[in-house]
Amino acid sequence: MKTQSSQTLIKKLAQAFFRVHLKANSGKGNVEIPQWMKKFDRPTKHFNIAAPSYREVTNIIKKIKPGSSACPFDQISIIILKRCPFLRTALHRILVYCWEGNVVPRIWKHGFTILIHKKDSPQDPSNFRPITLQPVFGKVFTSIIRNRIYSFLMDNKYIETKIQKGFWEEVSGTIEHTELLTHIINHARNNKRHLIVTLLDLKNAFGEVDHQLLSTVLEHHHVPTTVTELIKNLYDNYTISVGTESFITNPILVGKGVLQGDCLSPLLFNMCVNTLIKCIEDERVQCIGYSYCEYLRPRHWFQFADDTALVTTSEEDNQALLDVFTKWCRWAGFQVRVNKCSTFGIKHNGKKATPFKPYLKVNNQMIPQVEINESFQYLGKQFNYKMDTVVIEQELEYDLLEYLEKINRLPLHPRNKILIITKYVYSKLRWRLSIYRLSQTWVEQHLDNKIISYIKRWLHFHKGANMTHLKLASSKLGVGLQLASDVYRYCKLSIRKILSKSINNDMRCLFNLTKFNNVQTDCLIYNNDNPRSALKQQIENTVVEHLSTLKEQNTIMKHARQVASPKHITMWDNICRQMPKNIFVFARRALIYSLPNNSNLYRWRKSDNPSCELCYSNKQTQLHMLSACPVSADEGRYTWRHDSIIYTLLHYVSQLRKYGFRIYADLDNFDNPNEFFHSFRPDIVLIKDDRIFILEMTCCFATNSEKSRNLKISKYRDIQNDCKKRFRHWRKIFVEFTTLGLVTKHIDDLYSVFKNTNINYKRMIEKCMEVAMRASFYIYVRRNKQWTSPPILKFY
């Protein structure tokens, strides 16, 4: 419950409300199965009444989500059972005792109920959805009962999944129902046919299930008496305490209803509704439904748990189904909330189909009619005569902007802001992107563009900067960004895959009926074993193809992917994430030549002079600024960066002394290599016995790594002849770091020196990359300013 709502809900009011709400119905005796209700055939497969096995208990514990909220009364998380076999063994023994002795421990029959605000006034407790948290041992026990009953019902084909799609395994009920109802409305409008759709609402459906009714329903489904008695014992004297942030009520006896949050409750409720479904699945009753395909039976009823929709071609037939529903509600003890029901109609007036208001009644009360050109909602989806998405598009735009503005105000790193969009914002939009048929172009123009504009703001990209590369994986210099249009394509693929793989034949037929509107998506399903991976590859290929058309913004990334290994690019990305915001933004902008150096500012018409303000003889391009300015070179800016990287390397290389190496470096505080060479001065020399290792490091511009390497190789080709002392084994190692901190794959040549040591080789590379990036950033910051000769960077 939200904090503000919790504070407004008074403890005394909640206690009184739930006591009345959960009180058993007075005068309710045994519930008998009426004569008009169809009976189930005798079971052909026996119920498994054996005590639960250890493997069965373990499998249930594995399937329970680690993030499931623990009940405050036992304070035991399911994670403990997942990680402790000893506790699982002890629990298994307890469960066997309870199963064989037909007993339920008292502690398992007390739940903690939290309240989730739905809508309207928080002063009214009925405007909250109660969710009960069970003790974890009791949750495992009820899961065993649920699985046993479900297997029994499935084995004997007592479960109907064509009409009732709520809470069944392997059935995406909301998707299948909403897709079929959408198709029916479009079919009726396009073919100028009559259609009546009536939505029915039960008052507190789960909370009104009488416990006597449960026993009757279980017996009606031929569930063994021992299991029925076990469930009866479970609900006998079951209590809950309602809790908010400000109070917890005293225990309240649950005299009726099945508790939302209980593992067993959805199945028990569905079994109650199944008595109705058994009556209306008769072929003679189905014939009064709406026929949308000549080789399928008409569809007359949609059921998802307690959400009901009746579909017919005439008001008379719809009223007949309403009478059946009303009759069943009277027997089961449910109340229809007529004010929450609605009815919608389409009729043929001679030339075209038009919406109209059907006249229908429940319990002699007129059902509210959907106004002309208005919408009704079923299972979270808005339906109307035109099946347009104007309102939904407005909602999506508004919600997305609201989320983006909230993220924009947060004092977070840009990488984390992008992560929030990917992980959180899309989770709030994904349902609507799934169930509504939007235009791909509309999504790109109205949702993608808004996201791109905010990301450009966070990364300080100029307006013309291309963002496509951010969609690549981190191992390819992207950030794994998904735009709304990509999410929309994944959502549509999921919907089509659900229909194509449905266990119900009518859903697979619906897939074929609608294939002409989903050609590209369906091709992925037909031609690939893993359509989602195929779509991911398709999106990536599109990005790479687009980047290949960019002459400048792809230059650095293209070269980096050629000379650096994916593991080192991923390492670089991880370092970037840990950098302060200003350095992260610098690195990301530099990748696509988007830094505000004078050359770019002149191009963007933000400056009158593109020249370097230090040498005044060349344009201040990114290459010139970071590695080619003669004045910067004379001032020692690039030497400072080079020496900072060398000092970082030496911090780790020096640890080789304890492995018998002697270390020489062309830096202060180290023995100088001129002891061995006449004219050459390698950066680092390692000597052990009669072996010598020459290590030469270059910090070059991002696109010049191969050129710089070849120059170094050529320069040191004859270094053996320059040596004052003879060594039997020579090894020359050339390492290239770019100005942005990327390292080429040749860094692996250095690993042979560290192979049999416990020196942290990976950390050495990471810190060298970090120092190169930080040093280049400082050079960039001082691009138009006097050099201050800063101390050597030390990040070990």
Structure description:
- InterPro entries: DNA/RNA_pol_sf, Rev_trsase/Diguanyl_cyclase, RT_dom.
- By secondary structure, this protein is of the alpha+beta class.
- Among the domains are: 1-158 and 217-258, no CATH class; 391-549, no CATH class; 635-782, Restriction Endonuclease (3-Layer(aba) Sandwich).
- The protein is built from 29 helices and 17 strands.
- The strands form 5 sheets. It has a 5-stranded antiparallel beta sheet, sandwiched between helices. Strands 2-1-4-5 form a 4-stranded mixed beta sheet, with helices on one face. Strands 14-15-16-17 form a 4-stranded mixed beta sheet, with helices on both faces.
- The longest helix is centred in the middle third of the chain and has 22 residues, at 414-435.
- The chain is elongated, with a radius of gyration of 35 Å.
- Mean pLDDT is 91; it is low at 1-6.
The quaternary organization reads as single chain
**How many strands?**
17
User: Could you tell me the radius of gyration in angstroms?
Assistant: 35 Å
Major sheet size, sense and barrel closure: 5 strands, antiparallel
Percent of residues in β-strands: 5-15%
Strand order of the largest sheet: 6-7-3-8-9
Give me some keywords for this one.
elongated, Rev_trsase/Diguanyl_cyclase, alpha+beta, 796 residues
Characterize this entry briefly.
With 796 residues, this protein is α+β, with helices and mostly antiparallel strands.
